[in-house]
Amino acid sequence: xxxxxxxxxxxxxxxxxxxxxxxxxxxxxxxxxxxxxxxxxxxxxxxxxxxxxxxxxxxxxxxxxxxxxxxxxxxxxxxxxxxxxxxxxxxxxxxxxxxx
Length: 100
Known about the structure:
Layout: E1 2-7, E2 15-21, E3 27-31, E4 37-40, H1 43-57, H2 68-77, H3 82-91
Antiparallel strand pairs: 1-2, 2-3, 3-4
């Protein structure tokens, strides 16, 4: 099941969000402008989680990572090998757009 909804957070243009219910009953919300997606057990949870994810994506909340050392520390805290990330970055010509 999929529905589209538009919220008027931006009075000049609006925001298009696609809501899809997975087979397991969870909801996925996707911001069409940014491509950011999140999920939740309810439609409202998915939308709330999406708001937070979009704000993080846009740098409106959270802390920025400005140096390679800061990046390595965060990756290690998340259990991700920084060397694997560096290798993947080299193999794929840099960071994906969403990480820039």
